[in-house]
Give the backbone structure.
Amino acid sequence: MIDPLSDESLMGLAIDEARGAAGREPADVPIGAVVISPDGAVLATAGNRREADEDPTAHAEILALRAAARETGRWNLTGCTLAVTLEPCTMCAGAIVLSRVQRVVVGAMDPKAGAAGSLYDLVREPRLNHRVELTTGVREQECGDLLRDFFRARRKR
């Protein structure tokens, strides 16, 4: 069980998944996600697998939401919290809204592609049928450093 009030602990699990994504062969962009139930049980964790699976939809958030739905036996994840190391893109933000996740905890923001407050704000769009509680900047430096270090190393190759 994870303390459902500890965003830092949740982000730690997501960071572990992000590191795993970068450490795989083929290496993937280090983004990790974790879904916890309303009572604090870890339902699912995932890291990006776009390269490994050759799948453009294999973002950490999508994989974690799918696994959480399988774990609960329901697509509807009402009351659940998703923690992710990088602000969700439009695809992931849409999936978060459609799965009825209650709350999203974000590490680093993504001003170029973010859809949870930066470029767009789909998770809190008042015209949609569900809005998500959003907390940003949790372990932001650490999450951002993972991405900066990954891309710096790739540019050196």
